[in-house]
Amino acid sequence: MSPRRERRKSPRPNNSTNTPARQKPRGKVNAYFTHHLWVLVSSLGVLWRTPFATFMTAAVIGIALALPAGLHVLLQNVQKLSTGWEGTAQMSLFIKQGVSEKRIQKLAKKLRGWDGVEEVRYISREQALEEFRKLSGFGDALDSLNENPLPAVLVVQPTSEASEPAQMELLLGKVRELKPVDLAQLDMEWVRRLSGIIELGKRGVLLLGSLLSLAILLVIGNTIRLTILSRRDEIVVTKLIGATNAFIRRPFLYTGFWYGLLGAVLAWMLVGIRLGLLSEPVSRLSFLYNSQFSLGGLDLETTAILLGSGIFLGLLGSWLAVGKHLQAIEPS
Amino acid sequence: MIKFDNVNKRYPGGHEALSGVSFHIEPGEMVFLTGHSGAGKSSLLKLIACIERASRGNVIIDGQNLNRLKSRHIPALRRKIGVVFQNHNLLFDRTVYDNVALPLIIAGYHQSEVGRRVRAALDKVGLLGRERAMPITLSGGEQQRVGIARAVVNRPPLLLADEPTGNLDPELSKEIMQLFEQFNQVGVTVLVATHDHDLISRLDHRLLTLKQGRLDRDGSTADLIGETVAAAGGGI
Ligand SMILES: Nc1ncnc2c1ncn2[C@@H]1O[C@H](COP(=O)(O)OP(=O)(O)OP(=O)(O)O)[C@@H](O)[C@H]1O
Ligand SMILES: [Mg+2]
Known about the structure:
Number of strands of chain A: 4
Oligomer: heterodimer
Strand content of chain A: 5-15%
Radius of gyration of chain B: 18 Å
Bound molecules: adenosine-5'-triphosphate, magnesium ion
Strand content of chain B: 25-35%
Distance between the termini of chain B: 43 Å
Helix content of chain B: 25-40%
């Protein structure tokens, strides 16, 4: 049976309600998107009508998101700082006593030919003594020694690609094999350690992030569950009128979307405020250390990830809640 | 259009609301359903809209056997059926307009079309001025008419009404029945459950009478008059 066919067969009693049903498909796709947009806006409107409750939920999500996001930004900054230093990482090769100047020069030349070596600077025993005299102020004491106690040094500056801790380690191992070298030392051993700590920190942020994501899912899921229960009658009535599950699901999904988005925006603001508070003392500190370093904020990528994960968690949380609780509500 | 074939409905408590009910309503018919309170009128209508399922027997709507209807196809069935519920089933946090518009929005109608049809339907039930009102501020009869407007706004091929005139005065009841007859004249199949013998005896339609869950009589409303007269005569 088709309602349209039947209606067309028979005369229309009252032209006010009975326009030809043929017109119905006009703009139906358009109507579909209009409906989505309408649900999107109206679900925000519903949240807006209970600002306090909405803010509470969004704040919980915001704080949970701000924690890993803030740590991530902090790590990014530490990394930025340490890459600045990695560029200055060098290696000092202390040459054995009694190795001739000529051999040392030859060695320096050989090292310059190596991969990953940018520059090799030769500091002769005399230069070393001179430098030490100037810097230490122990000039007189040194004069009283008959012999120069300082070894000659080759300072190896690796290329910036080879400044990575692992590469440096490799290079260090290689120069230690060299016969004339008494002792080889990485001047910035701690950079490597810091890098290790950063790596650990990143894992920590990931772990913390996934735990808190789970918490956010539970918070959103529970909030949506309560919303579903409070709108039970409405769900029953719309089901009675012939609404599909997709139709009924929609406002709840959009509600989850808004919670996620609002939470992410709050998190973004929280991280921003924290960075704002820190940036002044940090630049003062870095000025004291004669550094150009300034605290970096939330970059575009991090912001996108923050908003994206907020929305994703909001949708997923409500999807799970809706899937679980909507089936149970049937008219009877 | 509606075919009941030896239908039983037993509720979880063990109470048999309908037993051995068989009848057939052709497309375009207008039928009244009557019977004492608890006779099973609402239960019968619920089976048609697949709000309840038959315990035994077949309910066939528009060629579709509801016993075998998958739950994901129920929405499509219900959209073909306009239902006026005994308890109105309005959404009390939405305006009259939004309540009536709901079936159209569910069906994906265009905004402009929705506005036109909603106003036309409200006009028919005499509530055109109350679009912005909340249902709670309306009288029982007005709420009932909102329910009627919502049932017909989508112009479904099948209209079920459960005590649609329960809260209306005789004048308004007559108008609502005339409205149903108008729909019937344009091909809509109409099934109205009602207690109101006075009202239906004045209209000439087929009448199904339920008695304790069984189909007691399947005749015309004219028989009802004869019956009433006979009963009155017998009393003398
Ligand atoms: N959900 C239910 N669970 C158990 N029993 C029910 C249920 N719904 C109805 N019944 C029982 O089924 C019988 C028929 O009920 P129904 O509502 O169909 O009667 P009715 O003819 O519509 O009565 P009324 O004129 O008072 O509305 C009643 O005895 C009722 O108690
Ligand atoms: Mg009833």
